[in-house]
Amino acid sequence: MDLFLWKIGGEAGFGIMTTGLSFGKVAIRSGYHVFDYNEYPSLIRGGHNTYEVMISSQEVYAQKQDIDLLVCLNKDTYTHHKHRLTDKSIVVYDADEFTIEETGFVKLHIPFASMKKEHHVMQIMVNTIALGASLALLSGDIAIFYEIIEKEFKRKGEEVIAFNKKLTDLGFNYIKEHYSEHIKPVLTRKQEKSKMILTGNDAFSLAAVVADCRFYAAYPMTPSSTVLTSLAGWQDKSKMVVRHAEDEIAVMNTVLGASFAGVRSATGTSGGGFALMVEGISFAGVAEISVVVFLSQRPGPATGMPTWTEQGDLLFAVNAGHGEFPKIVLAPGDIHEMFELTLKAFDLADIYQMPVIVMSDKFLSESHKSVNKEDISNLFANYHPNRGKLVNAPGEGKYLRYKITDDGISERLLPGAPGAFYQVNSYEHVEDGHTTEEAAPRIEQVDKRSRKWQTYLDSHFKAPRVYGDIETADAVFVSWGGNKGPIIEAQKMLDAQGKKTAYIHFTHIYPMNTSIVKDILSKDKRYILIENNAHGQFGKLLTMETGIMIKESLLKYDGRPIYKEEIVAKVNT
Amino acid sequence: MDLFLWKIGGEAGFGIMTTGLSFGKVAIRSGYHVFDYNEYPSLIRGGHNTYEVMISSQEVYAQKQDIDLLVCLNKDTYTHHKHRLTDKSIVVYDADEFTIEETGFVKLHIPFASMKKEHHVMQIMVNTIALGASLALLSGDIAIFYEIIEKEFKRKGEEVIAFNKKLTDLGFNYIKEHYSEHIKPVLTRKQEKSKMILTGNDAFSLAAVVADCRFYAAYPMTPSSTVLTSLAGWQDKSKMVVRHAEDEIAVMNTVLGASFAGVRSATGTSGGGFALMVEGISFAGVAEISVVVFLSQRPGPATGMPTWTEQGDLLFAVNAGHGEFPKIVLAPGDIHEMFELTLKAFDLADIYQMPVIVMSDKFLSESHKSVNKEDISNLFANYHPNRGKLVNAPGEGKYLRYKITDDGISERLLPGAPGAFYQVNSYEHVEDGHTTEEAAPRIEQVDKRSRKWQTYLDSHFKAPRVYGDIETADAVFVSWGGNKGPIIEAQKMLDAQGKKTAYIHFTHIYPMNTSIVKDILSKDKRYILIENNAHGQFGKLLTMETGIMIKESLLKYDGRPIYKEEIVAKVNT
Amino acid sequence: MATQKDFSGYTGTWCPGCGDWGIGVAIKSAFVQMGMDPSSVGVVFDIGCSGNMNDVLNAYAIHGLHGRSVPTAVGMKLAHHKMPVVVIGGDGGLYGEGGNHFLHASRGNHDITLIAHDNSVYGLTTGQVAPDAQKGYKSKSTPQGMIEVSLNPLALALTQGASFVAQGFAGDVTALIELIKKAIHHKGFSLVNVLQPCVTFNKVNTYQYYMQRIYTLDHSYDRTNYKLALEKTQEFNEEKYPIGILYQSDRPAYHEQIAHLPQDSSLRERPAFRDFGLLIDDFV
Amino acid sequence: MATQKDFSGYTGTWCPGCGDWGIGVAIKSAFVQMGMDPSSVGVVFDIGCSGNMNDVLNAYAIHGLHGRSVPTAVGMKLAHHKMPVVVIGGDGGLYGEGGNHFLHASRGNHDITLIAHDNSVYGLTTGQVAPDAQKGYKSKSTPQGMIEVSLNPLALALTQGASFVAQGFAGDVTALIELIKKAIHHKGFSLVNVLQPCVTFNKVNTYQYYMQRIYTLDHSYDRTNYKLALEKTQEFNEEKYPIGILYQSDRPAYHEQIAHLPQDSSLRERPAFRDFGLLIDDFV
Ligand SMILES: Cc1ncc(C[n+]2csc(CCOP(=O)(O)OP(=O)(O)O)c2C)c(N)n1
Ligand SMILES: Cc1ncc(C[n+]2csc(CCOP(=O)(O)OP(=O)(O)O)c2C)c(N)n1
Ligand code: SF4
Ligand code: SF4
Ligand SMILES: [Mg+2]
Ligand SMILES: [Mg+2]
Hints:
The complex is a heterotetramer, with two copies of chain A (573 residues) and two copies of chain C (284 residues). Chain A is of the alpha/beta class. Chain A is built from 19 helices and 23 strands. In chain A, strands 9-8-10-11-13-12-21 form a seven-stranded mixed sheet, with helices on both faces. In chain A, strand 22 (527-531), helix 18 and strand 23 (552-555) form a beta-alpha-beta unit. The termini of chain C are far apart. In chain C, 30% of the residues lie in helices and 17% in strands. Chain C is α/β, with parallel strands linked by helices and 284 residues long. Chain C has helices at 4-7, 19-33, 69-79, 91-97, 99-108, 153-159, 173-185, 207-213, 226-233, 277-280; strands spanning 42-45, 60-63, 85-90, 113-118, 121-122, 128-129, 164-169, 190-195, 214-216, 241-248. In chain C, the strands form two sheets. Chain C has an eight-stranded mixed sheet with strand order 2-1-3-4-8-7-10-9, with helices on both faces. A two-stranded antiparallel sheet of chain C has the order 5-6. Chains in contact: A-B, A-C, A-D, B-C, B-D, C-D. At the A-D interface, helix 8 of A face strand 6 of D. Strand 17 (422-425) of chain A pairs parallel with strand 2 of chain C. The structure holds thiamine diphosphate (2 copies), iron/sulfur cluster (SF4) (2 copies) and magnesium ion (2 copies). One iron/sulfur cluster (SF4) binds at residues 14-15, 18, 20, 49, 119, 123, 198-201 of chain D. One iron/sulfur cluster binds at residues 14-15, 18, 20, 49, 119, 123, 198-201 of chain D.
């Protein structure tokens, strides 16, 4: 399979991100699939910033260890990544700025510094030169990048556009002139179905709009902030009301107020902000208010490592909120699942009138992947909100907000409906919503709420999807969330080595149908738990629910995502 | 065994609580053991209030179902409790106010209303008449109650004292005159060792002072509030600084600031307030700041049933805080354990430099039990704080707050020590406390923090105590917290029925030594999980840690504590 | 038209003589006099004795979390701004636990009405001090007297942007009705700080106490004068309590300033957005 | 005596030209000039670009939670009041997330010094609006402009009881040093709101912008006059920024009012209480 990894690095604060994304856009417009991963420090300036893009003619889900083309805008980029070079790697750098002693790969000097000086450009524009050079080396069509420049700088006018094109040419032509022998046919234009390129956060944001979420409140917190800023930026088109509130507690309660009043509402945050919302989640639980909470994890505890990745909040999310009440936790594993599960999350929140948490992590939230545009458009076009038992007018008799029912779900009347009124209540309550401290209604309401879980398990829980065949597998991976990408890619590698594997991919994290799960985990197989955390939290959750303990595990907790090669190595030990 | 249950009930807001406690004090001063349980609504007025006191010449840990003497200050008291009367029961009431149709027990009319009118007293003083009557019926020594009156009203002067004594006499003499045939020798004065009578909250508060906790901050929340108000009230004696802060978030962070600066610090709350503290707990986890958090549970979710009892916050507490870090959760089962474990909690927090949560619930927090005064005095006298690796001055070389050590614990230098400085950090950090985002120090610090757990398990974890003999038991109870009382009492009842039982009582809830726990739970026995919640959370925790699932359970979640008779019934099904 | 009875749920559980009784009557009367009915008004109750009005007052209501009634009400308003939204809470919840929301909702001028029960204590948790108590106030949690100076809710709201700042007295229901009506009628953030004797736990700020120290702002008072209002808010340092509207301005409410919110319908009632192509374009 | 170098940790990671550089220098200079050394001062850093001063400034320090530096500092002070305690944070953390603490710590007059980096944005999370930005401020999170009016930190502190309220400018380090010294020297809650250009995300409130609008409070200004100060705090509505101490009073600090706290040692240093019998007596 063709898999090419392009990587660029430079000082933080100099537009590496934009450059990386532009590169990815060229790739999809040229007919390729991409997956990217970026690293940046929790500083505005002064640290190191990298961006790597996988290019493939097949769908691709994760990056790889070997770098095929490394573009170094500073020395650190080289130093930090030289261990990832092979004899096929090409390194682009400015030999006037620093020297590279090592050999065993292709070194291409481009005089970035003198070009910068000659053309009086800022450091940030050097990226454009480097991008031009990259395109040349990979047989990219410069016209495609021109289109991107035109779109991006439309507002800034012709002059800016022309200047950017010129910078692109500079790099492009330098390669053509000096290193034509190193040019590889990686981005040769192909006719393919149109693609989109987006991150997990983009997918959540888009899906929220599609789900007819009309109110989003948040307080910025990496790596969830771009949901807030995207949704805020789209307001004039989408007509969503987006509010950056004073703190996460306000956020949560405002969202609950809006949801009560009848609009689909959501919020997003990371662990620290989520910690401030858990009281509200408990409130949503007892008052039976629909809400979708997007939780994008980063390494904790506390402030932790804000711009890195981890899956360290799972058990906290599952057990979030004091007291006992039902909630649903979903975890998409890739962009497509983020679309599907976000749409589903809004439906579930309405159907079951409870909090639904959609979990992500920095790796999934901020890595771009290409998806087929038509698939997504169809998904959107065919989606129509299911608002469950929401009604516009009260029926016969006294309206009872918390009416005892077999499925645990009561009719929910839109506030303002004439001829009725009711209260939702954070206290335990009787059917009409009034406070009670009596034993009998307490038990009734606890049981009613619990039945919603059973109804969900019967109607909407989805068993984990299995990639590969468990029966014939030598190793069976068990995992969740963004690890899906590296695992799928590792399976391909192992397959090529003649090793059969299967992957049990959980998306419907909590609650779970224990008999289904028990069944799938009880074969006489080598199960390997893979998690991006130290405690093996999903493994613990599986044990809690089924009693099964998975003995082998690959746990990574240094803030970096799991690489497919690490999985392969694990299997081969 | 002699077990006598006295119960009084009346309208909320009329001093039932004080009366109940006074009754208990008479009992301990007469040489008896007591245990009490009270119920009151989450209203200042208008609801119903009851107080029941068990009296025994042996140590007693819980109330019982059958009421021996029921004092009804209103009709509700009778109606709510008539199902708990037996043919031996006595009911005291005012037949001028309401009539009792049922028969089959002893009905004693006392004209409370006309006495009230005749003597121009407020409703609240009728309690004193009723208390006098109770003492007469139970052969109590009125002089003992006189002493209590004298102590209580010392500040109010002789007149008030005399008047209260007169009211007592009124009830006392009425019984002697009219119902001498019903007098029972329940409170006949005995010479016994001095006792104290206190609640779980009292025990926590006292132990905090003894542990040399110097700073306590809190925001009121039932059923934890009396810790705040007791400690605040003792300030002039104890010199503790007690602060009622603006919210629970302030509380938590203030406590952490004080702890950093070197004083033992604690806070207390219930589920909703705890929810607001979890971000701070995560901070304490990564920054390695010692803190004791007293979590007294009430039925949730959200506001729930504020004045009732439940054990619904266990998994929330165990998993509290985003990210992965060690914490310790302890749960005393009775007053004596509350003393011991609170003292231990302060030591553990200092030794392991992490958050230690002491769990209680309304039942344990607000029920009084008698304990041997000398035992407690000795416990206190023999206690000396173990502050772990706290040092006054830096050693050789650069001081490293987060130095990597084998046991995971680093020296902690008192801020202000000359010649040094350091920072504690909510970000991931290197040994000196400065922020890092590098993989290697991240792994090192995560591992270091985890090792503290291992050290704790090796050095301070205490295996569950077993009451009875598992080998010979027909049924083995598994439980935690305040259920201990009813279970111990149920064991006595079952024993009398010829049924052998054992009780595995967990106090060191989390983390747990899995091999010890596995071992004790793997016998071929009828295990019964007993919890005061709906989800069987401790059972889930046991499964998570050991894979073992306890099949039978007794779960109660109506806000009421478990009664020993319910346990007996469970065993007999 | 709806009557007091339509608004009346269960009987209140307040202590006899509690100021909350009067406030409860005033709120219901105001609702009735404004021609509202329980289906046409949204109420968010905080947690406290004050919030226990939830059982007494019929409406589309949320009995939410302690201290969080304000943001909850903000959400309710934004989702369906056609409905008037009233917050009923105590000084512990609104100014203590929820102080940050109070402050920022003032800035936002959200069109909600706060009826703050100023009793200087935490009634429901049996009498700890509230932040607007007087310095030195002795309570269960401050037996040596509160060290902090009083929180000044009127000054806080005023300096942070509230467009309607008023003070009422639970002992004068007639005047309170008028204030509440004006507050609800006002478009924007309106605070009615109601001096409310807690007969059970507050032995200082009694009816008697207030009766001697309140005075009514008469017609000569110019409530559009910000500076004057600012001065009025300082009077409580001298234990003087002006009753009436201290300040009112007509700056637009938050929801009126959201360009894409249909003012004549509401966020809830507008048609769904389905033109997803507009957004997809960003990602190709 | 300690020097600037003793206080200097790593090199800052702020953007070139960021106002934080100037504030950093001012803080260190103030510490040095006051004869302090890194062992004698406590600092609590909030989370933000401002809080990232943690790597630059040596002290007994806590780099705590976003928005929670004030209560953390309060605890530090109460436990060991001999040590001066300084809070370094941003306007997002101190006035947004932490607004409630700011408000209540003002009331308490806790003896801590806040150096608030007023840059109108959330720097570290790349440029969303902060609550003290001007109404209409366009940012990533408010692309149509902030709807709320500015939070007024000076008025907030002043009306809620802070005993020292000042404003500085990151572009005038010399004056800032003096302000910081006075603030630390002051016994009680001291706020230094520092106008701080964020060159990366705030294109409105630049050095230029402030240079044209600041003015220094001269000797004729009476900083003990509360009313005058109150007026001064309102000037920012007209985009005028007084620099200097707006208000100072000598009401006692919180810890000075705790009767049982030994003033000459500290809570930490006092002998342990062991007379448990005194308390046991309540329970017999
Ligand atoms: C997060 C949280 N903390 C504490 C409580 C406990 N609590 C309930 S009501 C109350 C105070 C009530 O005081 P106030 O808001 O002034 O109302 P009042 O009873 O005086 O009307 C408190 C602290 C709670 N329910 N939730
Ligand atoms: C509870 C929580 N919410 C959000 C964040 C993310 N966060 C980190 S810094 C910051 C804002 C920084 O703004 P400010 O306080 O003004 O400081 P500045 O960077 O401008 O100096 C935010 C929102 C966090 N760390 N914790
Ligand atoms: S405690 Fe106070 S505020 Fe609460 S109902 Fe009684 S008098 Fe009213
Ligand atoms: S982003 Fe702004 S506040 Fe942060 S370092 Fe850069 S200039 Fe300073
Ligand atoms: Mg109050
Ligand atoms: Mg800022």
